């Protein structure tokens, strides 16, 4: 018996892959339906993951610039304005480098039907009577530099400010809804008397002292609530993770039905396909080769559905404003101005998605594939 | 030489629907000769053909292909022996629909690897030899019965096997095409190939080209030499 | 319990892969019990066909095992902000007593699955299933390890409570603390580094010898098997400070991050794959005398040794590049 040169693994796999592709092509209808469902599942899960990851990194970006410690005054369990004399008392606590009173608040803009954040920055570079606005505000108000910017003050009068410039944004979630203005204008608009602040921000250079400082403040000023940056971070994380986890759990039902459909498709071979595998076995293909072909088939379907789903989700989340997801995941005010997320895509998201979708598909199809591959070689002769 | 010694093939062993398809068959198949297994349907000739072609393992007994004992080989190795030694032509030709004639001929060689260019050339040469070279790029489902059979024969030969096994090869052919088929078979023998066929068609088993006819009934050989 | 999509992915896939494994082990036991190669019965044929299924399943277990290993580290990394004091995966793993055992079991289980696949490949080279009994006993032996890992993985995530105060990687892998991490970091860097370099050189030399002359297979096996734990320890105690250019930073996980050019992936990949293929050569040594393998096994081992030498050479090149390119000098 002559034996040809043993085939290299690669050559053989190339032939098998070629055959797999042509075989998939010949059964477009059946495979397209499954691939479409697969893509849909990947799309849904990828949208959730991309969206939360993007929100998360936006949140982290905001928090990077957040003060180490914020002190709020609490009256009857509710956040209240804090007197300015506390600033000096707080700055004397050991470990605190700087304390400063902050003024900020929300304003419901009836004309744009959106909630805006008004903030007095550390050093406002404009003149009183001027505002600097975020891109989201500029979009909804159609305001350009030099235009008037009318605002309804707390006493019912309309105060007309002037737009000085818009802030170019590195992260839209941070600055989109922002209106920066001078301290006198802020106090005039919201009717806050001098000497009162929204809260007090502390700079504590040594990270290890933050909790000690917080404990001291709680002792010295029982009517205040010190909040550390780490606590805010943790809360954000927990909420985002929990929300997306919940959505994934809901999608688990979809995942399960997808697995069942995949299993059903894989085990319910068409007569045509059964016959084809029988012929391959009869003319000299081994079980391992038919199985390899089936593995290739799964890999091709998985890979294309995976890529298509991921691309669609990327488009959905980062190019369009995620119309299908935003209401569930964004979570805060739905009248928040429209913003665009900074794209995030990393191995973490891809591997999560891989385990969530490819594993169920593979587990569902491996036994049916094996069963098909072990068709008796002489079966075509018996029929 | 292919030697079968006391070979039995039993389906559904130990169950109520147990079926003895091949019963104690001892048979030598000579090299470079045409051997025909004849008998009514259900006589076990197709099952015997499957055993000869290493498509299935006997329930008991021994089979030697050349000087190699194949009965105890795992399926994987049996497949390897089979695809290097045997070429198969089936009753309904069993071409894969949707593939072209050329691709069908190439199929048995895929698991063997090797250069694609050489394979295409080999397959095309075989199609040319059997007069269907012009139909190489026609899809298998568009071929006529005679063309399909020629493509099937070309497919059987693509790995250059020493033995060609054919199951009821003339069942779907008219008399003229059947006679033509016997001429092709004779040509294969003259190249030094062994041909084993199962048939209950007189054109086949009464043909003067056949060297050896084995008659079967109920899974047993009823008469050795004609 | 933390309801995080990655946690769900890890726990869900552990359940599915665990089911695959149990199914394989069931058929492994059946094969051990009823295997009779001399029989031509349909039962025997069925069992032989099951072997294809079991090896395909184990292949998937290996692939998904690698994916979950990475995802596990990523997830631990991304959960870090939930634990006071945790700054990367090192801290989140410390947040539960199951964390580090899960990681070690994952590496161990995935290595065992890899060795199983090497043995399985060797078995298919002989025409009479020469390793079938060894192979399925081995399968039954590693199944509990893999299942234990998956159970602990689920337990780890169930056990995590976001309030737990853990340490950041700086203090966990710092030299002052206690526990496995600090013990590793506290190993004298020249000692760990020296042992690693000597083992690596030895394994490459043995691999080359085996590849060229066909001798030294046992040495290759033993050296590569030792190389995996020693290499991981050396990365923590000796190599990582070179990457971070900080003599006190010993975290094995930050290597996987963008800031360090993802150097951890090729580094760990070459270490794992190189030591696995080398160990495979050693594991197959006793079977060279089996008649049906005598003709084919040595060639397969040489191929494995070639892979091992190539991968370990890549590893050596990476290590050399890291040490040479670093600003840090350890005297």
What does this structure look like?
The complex is a heterotrimer of chains A (383), B (226) and C (331). The longest helix of chain A is centred in the middle third of the chain and has 39 residues, at 229-267. Chain A has 13 helices and twelve strands. With 383 residues, chain A is α+β, with helices and mostly antiparallel strands. Chain A has two domains: 9-62 and 235-382, no CATH class; 69-203, no CATH class. Chain A has helices at residues 9-26, 28-64, 85-91, 135-141, 172-175, 183-190, 210-220, 229-267, 271-282, 287-319, 326-329, 347-373, 379-382, and strands spanning 69-75, 78-80, 82-83, 98-109, 114-120, 130-133, 148-152, 158-166, 178-181, 196-197, 199-203, 224-228. Chain B has a single domain (2-223), classed as Rossmann fold. Chain B has seven helices and ten strands. In chain B, the strands form two sheets. Chain B has a six-stranded mixed beta sheet with strand order 6-7-8-3-9-10, with helices on both faces. A four-stranded antiparallel beta sheet of chain B has the order 2-1-4-5, covered by helices on one side. In chain B, helix 6 (175-190) links the parallel strand 7 and strand 8. The longest helix of chain B is centred in the C-terminal third of the chain and has 16 residues, at 175-190. Chain B starts with a strand and ends with a strand. The model of chain B has no long low-confidence stretch (mean pLDDT 90). Chain C is an all-alpha fold. Helices cover 74% and strands 0% of the residues of chain C. Chain C contains twelve helices and no strands. The longest helix of chain C is centred in the first third of the chain and has 38 residues, at 42-79. Chain C is flat and about 65 Å long. The mean pLDDT of chain C is 86. Classes of the chains: A alpha+beta (383), B alpha/beta (226), C mainly alpha (331). Chains in contact: A-B, A-C, B-C. The A-C interface holds A 45, 48-49, 52, 230, 233-234, 237-238, 241-242, 244-246, 248-249, 252, 287-288, 291, 295, 347-348, 351-356, 359-360, 362-363, 366-367, 370, 373-374 and C 2-10, 12-13, 16-17, 19-20, 49, 52-53, 56-57, 60, 64, 67-68, 70-71, 74-75, 77-78, 81-82, 84, 162.
Describe this structure in a few short sentences.
Chain A has helices spanning 9-26, 28-64, 85-91, 135-141, 172-175, 183-190, 210-220, 229-267, 271-282, 287-319, 326-329, 347-373, 379-382; strands spanning 69-75, 78-80, 82-83, 98-109, 114-120, 130-133, 148-152, 158-166, 178-181, 196-197, 199-203, 224-228. Chain A is α+β, with helices and mostly antiparallel strands.
């Amino acid at each position: 018996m002559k034996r040809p040169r043993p085939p290299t693994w690669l050559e053989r796999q190339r032939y098998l892959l070629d055959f797999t592709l042509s075989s998939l092509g010949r059964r477009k209808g059946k495979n397209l339906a499954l691939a479409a469902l697969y893509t849909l599942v990947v799309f849904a899960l990828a949208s959730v993951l991309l969206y939360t990851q993007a929100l998360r990194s936006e949140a982290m970006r905001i928090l990077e610039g957040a003060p180490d410690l914020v002190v709020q005054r609490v009256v009857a369990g509710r956040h209240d304005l804090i007197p300015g004399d506390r600033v000096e008392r707080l700055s004397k606590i050991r470990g605190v480098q700087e304390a400063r009173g902050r003024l900020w608040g929300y304003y419901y803009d009836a004309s744009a039907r959106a909630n805006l954040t008004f903030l007095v920055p550390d050093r406002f570079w404009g003149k009183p009577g001027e505002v600097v606005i975020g891109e989201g505000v500029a979009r909804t108000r159609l305001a350009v530099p030099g235009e008037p910017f009318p605002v309804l003050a707390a006493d019912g009068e309309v105060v007309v400010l002037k737009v000085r410039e818009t802030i170019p944004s590195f992260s839209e979630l941070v600055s989109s809804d922002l209106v920066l203005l001078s301290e006198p204008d802020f106090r005039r608009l919201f009717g806050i008397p001098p000497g009162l602040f929204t809260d007090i921000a502390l700079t504590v250079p040594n990270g290890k002292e933050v909790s000690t400082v917080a404990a001291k403040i709680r002792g010295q000023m029982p009517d205040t609530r010190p909040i550390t940056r780490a606590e805010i971070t943790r809360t954000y994380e927990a909420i985002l993770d929990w929300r997306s986890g919940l959505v994934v759990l809901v999608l688990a039902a979809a995942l399960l039905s997808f697995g069942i459909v995949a299993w059903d498709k894989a085990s319910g071979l068409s007569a045509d396909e059964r016959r084809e595998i029988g012929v391959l076995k009869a003319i000299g293909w081994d079980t391992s080769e038919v199985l390899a072909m089936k593995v290739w088939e799964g890999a091709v379907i998985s890979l294309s559905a995976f890529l298509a789903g991921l691309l669609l989700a990327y488009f959905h989340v980062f190019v369009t404003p995620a119309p299908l997801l935003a209401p569930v995941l964004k979570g805060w005010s739905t009248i928040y101005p429209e913003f665009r997320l900074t794209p995030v895509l990393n191995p973490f998201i891809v591997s999560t998605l891989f385990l969530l979708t490819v594993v169920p598909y593979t587990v569902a199809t491996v036994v049916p594939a094996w069963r098909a591959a072990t068709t008796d070689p002489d079966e075509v002769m018996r029929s | 030489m292919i030697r079968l010694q006391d070979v039995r093939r039993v389906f559904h062993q130990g169950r109520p629907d147990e079926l003895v398809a091949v019963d104690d068959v001892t048979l030598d198949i000579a090299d470079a000769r045409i051997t025909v297994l004849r008998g009514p349907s259900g006589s076990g000739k197709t099952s015997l053909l499957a055993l000869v072609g290493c498509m299935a393992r006997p329930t008991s007994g021994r089979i030697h292909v050349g000087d190699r004992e194949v009965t105890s080989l795992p399926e994987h190795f049996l497949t390897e022996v089979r695809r290097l030694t045997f070429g198969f032509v089936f009753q309904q030709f069993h071409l894969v629909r949707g593939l072209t004639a050329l691709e069908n001929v190439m199929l048995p060689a895929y698991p063997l690897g090797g250069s694609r260019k050489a394979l295409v050339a080999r397959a095309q040469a075989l199609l040319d030899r059997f007069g269907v070279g012009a139909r190489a790029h026609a899809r298998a489902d568009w071929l006529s019965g005679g063309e399909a059979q020629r493509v099937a024969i070309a497919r059987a030969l693509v790995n250059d096997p020493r033995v060609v096994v054919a199951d009821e090869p003339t069942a779907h052919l008219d008399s003229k095409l059947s006679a033509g088929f016997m001429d092709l078979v004779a040509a294969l023998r003259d190249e030094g190939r062994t041909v084993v066929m199962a048939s209950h068609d007189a054109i086949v088993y009464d043909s003067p080209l056949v060297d050896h006819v084995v008659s079967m009934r109920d899974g047993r050989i009823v008469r050795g030499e004609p | 319990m933390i309801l995080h999509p990655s946690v769900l992915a890890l726990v869900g896939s552990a359940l599915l892969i665990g089911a695959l494994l149990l199914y394989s082990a069931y058929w492994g036991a059946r094969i051990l019990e009823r295997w009779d190669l001399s029989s031509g019965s349909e039962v025997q044929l069925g069992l032989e066909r099951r072997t294809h299924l079991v090896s395909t399943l184990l292949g998937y277990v290996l692939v998904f095992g690698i994916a979950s290993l990475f995802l596990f580290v990523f997830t631990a990394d991304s959960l870090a902000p939930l634990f006071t004091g945790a700054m990367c995966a090192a801290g989140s793993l410390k947040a539960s007593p199951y964390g580090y055992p899960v990681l070690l079991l994952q590496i161990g289980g995935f290595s065992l699955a890899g060795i199983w696949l090497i043995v399985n490949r060797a078995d298919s080279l002989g025409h009479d299933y020469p390793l079938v009994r060894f192979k399925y006993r081995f399968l039954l032996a590693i199944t509990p390890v893999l299942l234990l890992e998956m159970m602990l993985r689920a337990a780890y995530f169930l056990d995590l409570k976001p309030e737990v105060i853990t340490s950041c990687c700086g203090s966990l892998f710092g030299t002052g603390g206690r526990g496995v991490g600090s013990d590793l970091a506290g190993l004298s860097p020249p000692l760990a580094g020296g042992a690693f370099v000597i083992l690596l050189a030895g394994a490459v030399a043995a691999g080359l010898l085996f590849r060229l002359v066909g001798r030294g297979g046992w040495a290759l096996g033993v050296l590569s098997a030792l190389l995996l734990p020693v290499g991981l320890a050396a990365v923590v105690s000796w190599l990582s400070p070179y990457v971070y250019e900080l003599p006190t930073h010993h975290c094995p996980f930050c290597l996987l991050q963008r800031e360090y050019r993802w150097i951890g992936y090729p580094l760990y990949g070459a270490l794992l794959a190189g030591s696995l293929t080398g160990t495979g050569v050693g594991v197959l040594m006793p079977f060279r005398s089996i008649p049906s393998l005598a003709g084919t096994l040595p060639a397969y081992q040489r191929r494995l040794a070639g892979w091992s030498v190539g991968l370990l050479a890549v590893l050596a090149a990476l290590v050399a590049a890291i040490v040479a390119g670093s600003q840090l000098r350890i005297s």
